[in-house]
Amino acid sequence: MDTQSFTITVTSLDSPLKNTLTVTDCFNQKGNDKLSAKDKIPVIQTSDNDRLETVPHSYTCYRFTDPSIPAKCLIATPELIPDMAIVDPDFADSMPPEVRADSGMDAFTHAIESYVSSKSNDFSRGLSLQAITLIMKYLPSSFLERDPVAREHMHYAATLAGMAFSNSSNGICHSVAGIIGAAYHLTHGRANAIALPYVIRYNSPAVGGLYANVARAIGFKGGNQSEAVTDLIKKVNHLKKSLKVQNSYQQMGIPEDRFQSQLKEFVQRAYRLPATNWNPRKSTMEDLERLFQACYEGKGRLLQRSRK
What we know:
Blueprint: H1 23-27, E1 42-44, E2 60-65, E3 72-77, E4 84-86, H2 97-116, H3 122-144, H4 148-166, H5 172-184, H6 188-217, H7 225-242, H8 256-272, H9 274-278, H10 285-297
Parallel strand pairs: 1-4
Antiparallel strand pairs: 2-3
Protein backbone atom coordinates (compact mmCIF):
# COMPACT_ATOMS: atom_id res chain seq x y z
CA MET A 1 0.00 0.00 0.00
CA ASP A 2 1.45 3.35 -1.02
CA THR A 3 1.33 5.45 2.13
CA GLN A 4 2.23 8.56 0.17
CA SER A 5 -1.01 8.50 -1.82
CA PHE A 6 -3.44 6.67 0.48
CA THR A 7 -4.71 8.16 3.71
CA ILE A 8 -7.37 6.72 6.01
CA THR A 9 -9.20 8.86 8.50
CA VAL A 10 -9.33 6.79 11.69
CA THR A 11 -11.77 7.87 14.38
CA SER A 12 -12.73 6.52 17.76
CA LEU A 13 -14.97 3.46 17.76
CA ASP A 14 -17.13 5.42 20.17
CA SER A 15 -17.35 8.55 18.05
CA PRO A 16 -20.43 9.29 15.92
CA LEU A 17 -18.13 10.39 13.11
CA LYS A 18 -18.02 8.15 10.03
CA ASN A 19 -14.82 6.86 8.48
CA THR A 20 -13.97 7.95 4.98
CA LEU A 21 -13.36 4.69 3.09
CA THR A 22 -15.32 1.58 2.19
CA VAL A 23 -13.95 -1.95 1.93
CA THR A 24 -13.96 -1.65 -1.86
CA ASP A 25 -11.99 1.58 -1.68
CA CYS A 26 -9.29 -0.14 0.34
CA PHE A 27 -8.98 -3.21 -1.85
CA ASN A 28 -8.79 -1.03 -4.96
CA GLN A 29 -5.71 0.79 -3.73
CA LYS A 30 -2.50 -0.03 -5.62
CA GLY A 31 1.09 0.27 -4.50
CA ASN A 32 3.74 -1.26 -2.29
CA ASP A 33 2.72 -3.11 0.84
CA LYS A 34 5.84 -2.05 2.74
CA LEU A 35 6.73 1.24 4.31
CA SER A 36 10.08 2.74 3.43
CA ALA A 37 12.88 2.55 5.98
CA LYS A 38 12.49 6.24 6.75
CA ASP A 39 8.75 6.05 7.44
CA LYS A 40 7.77 6.15 11.12
CA ILE A 41 4.31 5.77 12.64
CA PRO A 42 3.57 7.73 15.80
CA VAL A 43 0.15 7.08 17.35
CA ILE A 44 -1.69 9.58 19.51
CA GLN A 45 -4.66 8.23 21.43
CA THR A 46 -7.51 10.73 21.60
CA SER A 47 -10.10 8.71 23.51
CA ASP A 48 -10.18 6.22 26.39
CA ASN A 49 -11.12 3.03 24.54
CA ASP A 50 -9.20 0.82 22.06
CA ARG A 51 -5.47 1.12 22.65
CA LEU A 52 -4.03 0.21 19.27
CA GLU A 53 -0.83 2.00 20.26
CA THR A 54 -0.12 -0.71 22.86
CA VAL A 55 -0.61 -3.84 20.73
CA PRO A 56 2.60 -5.94 20.67
CA HIS A 57 1.28 -8.56 18.25
CA SER A 58 2.72 -9.34 14.82
CA TYR A 59 0.17 -7.00 13.29
CA THR A 60 -2.05 -4.11 14.22
CA CYS A 61 -5.65 -3.74 13.05
CA TYR A 62 -7.41 -0.52 12.17
CA ARG A 63 -11.19 -0.74 12.01
CA PHE A 64 -13.75 1.02 9.92
CA THR A 65 -17.28 0.52 8.70
CA ASP A 66 -18.60 -0.15 5.22
CA PRO A 67 -22.28 0.88 5.11
CA SER A 68 -23.05 -2.07 2.84
CA ILE A 69 -21.71 -4.67 5.30
CA PRO A 70 -23.20 -5.06 8.82
CA ALA A 71 -19.84 -5.79 10.41
CA LYS A 72 -16.70 -4.04 11.55
CA CYS A 73 -13.96 -4.32 8.94
CA LEU A 74 -10.24 -4.52 9.53
CA ILE A 75 -7.06 -3.38 7.88
CA ALA A 76 -4.28 -5.56 9.31
CA THR A 77 -0.55 -5.54 8.61
CA PRO A 78 2.70 -5.60 10.62
CA GLU A 79 3.53 -2.33 8.87
CA LEU A 80 0.95 -0.55 11.03
CA ILE A 81 2.64 -1.34 14.35
CA PRO A 82 3.42 2.09 15.83
CA ASP A 83 7.01 3.13 16.40
CA MET A 84 5.95 5.56 19.11
CA ALA A 85 2.91 5.87 21.34
CA ILE A 86 1.97 9.23 22.82
CA VAL A 87 -0.33 8.74 25.80
CA ASP A 88 -1.19 12.31 26.78
CA PRO A 89 -4.55 12.94 28.44
CA ASP A 90 -4.66 16.49 27.06
CA PHE A 91 -5.42 15.04 23.63
CA ALA A 92 -8.59 13.44 25.00
CA ASP A 93 -9.78 16.48 26.92
CA SER A 94 -12.29 17.60 24.29
CA MET A 95 -14.27 14.34 24.25
CA PRO A 96 -18.03 14.92 24.62
CA PRO A 97 -19.54 13.37 27.77
CA GLU A 98 -21.27 10.53 25.90
CA VAL A 99 -18.07 9.56 24.10
CA ARG A 100 -16.19 9.74 27.40
CA ALA A 101 -18.71 7.37 28.99
CA ASP A 102 -18.75 4.93 26.08
CA SER A 103 -14.99 4.83 25.62
CA GLY A 104 -14.48 4.46 29.37
CA MET A 105 -16.85 1.50 29.50
CA ASP A 106 -15.04 -0.03 26.54
CA ALA A 107 -11.79 0.18 28.52
CA PHE A 108 -13.54 -1.28 31.56
CA THR A 109 -14.78 -4.21 29.48
CA HIS A 110 -11.25 -4.78 28.18
CA ALA A 111 -10.00 -4.92 31.74
CA ILE A 112 -12.72 -7.28 33.03
CA GLU A 113 -12.59 -9.64 30.06
CA SER A 114 -8.80 -9.81 29.91
CA TYR A 115 -8.69 -10.65 33.63
CA VAL A 116 -10.82 -13.79 33.20
CA SER A 117 -9.77 -14.75 29.67
CA SER A 118 -8.60 -18.31 29.07
CA LYS A 119 -5.37 -16.73 27.78
CA SER A 120 -4.81 -14.50 30.82
CA ASN A 121 -1.62 -14.82 32.85
CA ASP A 122 0.12 -13.31 35.85
CA PHE A 123 1.41 -10.37 33.84
CA SER A 124 -1.85 -9.49 32.08
CA ARG A 125 -3.95 -9.89 35.22
CA GLY A 126 -1.86 -7.34 37.08
CA LEU A 127 -2.51 -4.83 34.32
CA SER A 128 -6.21 -5.75 34.18
CA LEU A 129 -6.77 -5.34 37.90
CA GLN A 130 -5.02 -1.98 38.10
CA ALA A 131 -7.10 -0.73 35.16
CA ILE A 132 -10.31 -1.95 36.83
CA THR A 133 -9.60 -0.17 40.12
CA LEU A 134 -8.66 3.08 38.37
CA ILE A 135 -11.74 3.05 36.13
CA MET A 136 -14.15 2.32 38.97
CA LYS A 137 -12.64 5.18 40.94
CA TYR A 138 -12.21 7.81 38.25
CA LEU A 139 -14.68 7.23 35.39
CA PRO A 140 -17.76 8.71 37.14
CA SER A 141 -16.01 11.95 38.09
CA SER A 142 -14.32 12.12 34.69
CA PHE A 143 -17.78 11.95 33.12
CA LEU A 144 -19.83 14.02 35.55
CA GLU A 145 -17.43 16.67 36.86
CA ARG A 146 -14.84 17.18 34.11
CA ASP A 147 -12.24 16.53 36.81
CA PRO A 148 -8.81 16.87 35.12
CA VAL A 149 -7.14 14.49 37.59
CA ALA A 150 -9.81 11.86 36.97
CA ARG A 151 -9.49 12.30 33.21
CA GLU A 152 -5.74 11.81 33.41
CA HIS A 153 -6.10 8.58 35.37
CA MET A 154 -8.78 7.35 32.96
CA HIS A 155 -6.49 7.89 29.98
CA TYR A 156 -3.76 5.85 31.64
CA ALA A 157 -6.21 3.18 32.79
CA ALA A 158 -7.39 2.68 29.23
CA THR A 159 -3.80 2.12 28.14
CA LEU A 160 -3.27 -0.41 30.93
CA ALA A 161 -6.44 -2.23 29.85
CA GLY A 162 -5.21 -2.24 26.26
CA MET A 163 -1.88 -3.72 27.33
CA ALA A 164 -3.77 -6.34 29.33
CA PHE A 165 -6.03 -7.61 26.56
CA SER A 166 -3.18 -7.40 24.05
CA ASN A 167 -1.30 -9.90 26.20
CA SER A 168 -4.33 -12.13 26.80
CA SER A 169 -7.58 -11.55 24.90
CA ASN A 170 -11.13 -10.31 25.13
CA GLY A 171 -14.08 -12.65 25.54
CA ILE A 172 -17.70 -13.23 24.71
CA CYS A 173 -18.83 -9.74 25.66
CA HIS A 174 -16.90 -8.46 22.65
CA SER A 175 -18.45 -11.15 20.49
CA VAL A 176 -21.96 -10.00 21.38
CA ALA A 177 -21.21 -6.27 21.37
CA GLY A 178 -19.30 -6.32 18.10
CA ILE A 179 -22.16 -8.03 16.28
CA ILE A 180 -24.95 -5.94 17.82
CA GLY A 181 -23.03 -2.69 17.45
CA ALA A 182 -22.35 -3.27 13.77
CA ALA A 183 -25.90 -4.41 12.99
CA TYR A 184 -27.66 -1.53 14.73
CA HIS A 185 -25.00 1.21 14.66
CA LEU A 186 -24.38 1.34 18.41
CA THR A 187 -21.06 2.65 19.63
CA HIS A 188 -18.70 -0.14 20.59
CA GLY A 189 -18.31 0.96 24.20
CA ARG A 190 -22.05 1.24 24.83
CA ALA A 191 -22.71 -2.13 23.24
CA ASN A 192 -20.08 -3.63 25.54
CA ALA A 193 -21.39 -1.82 28.60
CA ILE A 194 -24.91 -3.14 28.10
CA ALA A 195 -23.76 -6.75 27.69
CA LEU A 196 -21.11 -6.81 30.44
CA PRO A 197 -23.26 -7.58 33.54
CA TYR A 198 -24.99 -10.43 31.72
CA VAL A 199 -21.65 -11.84 30.56
CA ILE A 200 -20.31 -11.74 34.12
CA ARG A 201 -23.37 -13.66 35.31
CA TYR A 202 -23.01 -16.13 32.44
CA ASN A 203 -19.29 -16.74 33.04
CA SER A 204 -19.47 -16.93 36.83
CA PRO A 205 -19.86 -20.74 37.05
CA ALA A 206 -16.49 -21.06 35.32
CA VAL A 207 -14.51 -18.14 36.80
CA GLY A 208 -16.43 -17.05 39.87
CA GLY A 209 -13.21 -17.00 41.89
CA LEU A 210 -11.59 -14.51 39.51
CA TYR A 211 -14.66 -12.29 39.56
CA ALA A 212 -14.55 -12.47 43.37
CA ASN A 213 -10.97 -11.18 43.23
CA VAL A 214 -12.18 -8.24 41.15
CA ALA A 215 -15.04 -7.57 43.57
CA ARG A 216 -12.64 -7.51 46.53
CA ALA A 217 -10.26 -5.19 44.68
CA ILE A 218 -13.06 -2.62 44.33
CA GLY A 219 -14.43 -2.85 47.84
CA PHE A 220 -16.28 -6.10 48.57
CA LYS A 221 -15.45 -7.24 52.12
CA GLY A 222 -17.15 -10.62 52.38
CA GLY A 223 -15.72 -14.08 51.83
CA ASN A 224 -18.56 -15.75 49.95
CA GLN A 225 -17.79 -16.16 46.24
CA SER A 226 -21.39 -16.02 45.08
CA GLU A 227 -22.03 -12.86 47.07
CA ALA A 228 -18.84 -11.34 45.66
CA VAL A 229 -19.98 -11.96 42.08
CA THR A 230 -23.40 -10.49 42.86
CA ASP A 231 -21.74 -7.43 44.39
CA LEU A 232 -19.55 -7.02 41.30
CA ILE A 233 -22.59 -7.08 39.00
CA LYS A 234 -24.32 -4.51 41.21
CA LYS A 235 -21.29 -2.23 41.06
CA VAL A 236 -21.08 -2.55 37.27
CA ASN A 237 -24.76 -1.67 36.99
CA HIS A 238 -24.31 1.27 39.35
CA LEU A 239 -21.38 2.51 37.24
CA LYS A 240 -23.51 2.24 34.10
CA LYS A 241 -26.35 4.15 35.75
CA SER A 242 -23.99 6.97 36.75
CA LEU A 243 -22.94 7.22 33.09
CA LYS A 244 -26.56 7.13 31.81
CA VAL A 245 -25.99 3.83 30.02
CA GLN A 246 -29.06 1.72 29.21
CA ASN A 247 -29.64 -1.72 30.74
CA SER A 248 -30.61 -3.55 27.56
CA TYR A 249 -30.37 -3.39 23.80
CA GLN A 250 -34.15 -3.07 23.69
CA GLN A 251 -33.84 0.21 25.60
CA MET A 252 -31.56 1.44 22.81
CA GLY A 253 -34.55 1.34 20.48
CA ILE A 254 -33.75 -1.85 18.56
CA PRO A 255 -37.07 -3.20 17.22
CA GLU A 256 -37.94 -6.60 18.67
CA ASP A 257 -39.14 -8.07 15.39
CA ARG A 258 -35.91 -7.12 13.65
CA PHE A 259 -33.77 -8.48 16.50
CA GLN A 260 -35.64 -11.79 16.63
CA SER A 261 -35.42 -12.22 12.85
CA GLN A 262 -31.62 -11.83 13.00
CA LEU A 263 -30.96 -13.70 16.25
CA LYS A 264 -30.01 -17.05 14.67
CA GLU A 265 -27.56 -15.32 12.35
CA PHE A 266 -26.03 -13.40 15.27
CA VAL A 267 -25.56 -16.65 17.22
CA GLN A 268 -23.88 -18.40 14.31
CA ARG A 269 -21.51 -15.52 13.76
CA ALA A 270 -20.66 -15.19 17.47
CA TYR A 271 -19.95 -18.92 17.73
CA ARG A 272 -17.18 -18.61 15.14
CA LEU A 273 -15.43 -15.56 16.59
CA PRO A 274 -11.99 -15.90 18.25
CA ALA A 275 -13.19 -13.97 21.30
CA THR A 276 -15.83 -16.66 21.91
CA ASN A 277 -13.15 -19.33 21.76
CA TRP A 278 -11.03 -17.44 24.30
CA ASN A 279 -13.95 -16.90 26.66
CA PRO A 280 -13.40 -18.76 29.96
CA ARG A 281 -16.74 -20.58 29.70
CA LYS A 282 -17.24 -22.59 26.53
CA SER A 283 -20.54 -22.00 24.80
CA THR A 284 -23.06 -23.93 22.79
CA MET A 285 -25.34 -22.30 20.24
CA GLU A 286 -28.14 -22.51 22.80
CA ASP A 287 -26.01 -20.72 25.41
CA LEU A 288 -25.24 -17.93 22.99
CA GLU A 289 -28.86 -17.50 21.99
CA ARG A 290 -29.88 -17.11 25.63
CA LEU A 291 -27.07 -14.64 26.22
CA PHE A 292 -28.10 -12.49 23.26
CA GLN A 293 -31.72 -12.66 24.44
CA ALA A 294 -30.77 -11.67 28.00
CA CYS A 295 -28.79 -8.69 26.72
CA TYR A 296 -31.67 -7.64 24.49
CA GLU A 297 -34.39 -7.94 27.13
CA GLY A 298 -32.26 -6.94 30.10
CA LYS A 299 -33.22 -10.11 31.99
CA GLY A 300 -30.35 -11.97 33.63
CA ARG A 301 -32.68 -14.75 34.74
CA LEU A 302 -32.80 -15.96 31.15
CA LEU A 303 -29.24 -17.23 31.69
CA GLN A 304 -30.21 -19.54 34.55
CA ARG A 305 -31.23 -22.27 32.12
CA SER A 306 -27.82 -22.25 30.40
CA ARG A 307 -25.82 -25.40 30.85
CA LYS A 308 -23.30 -25.65 33.67
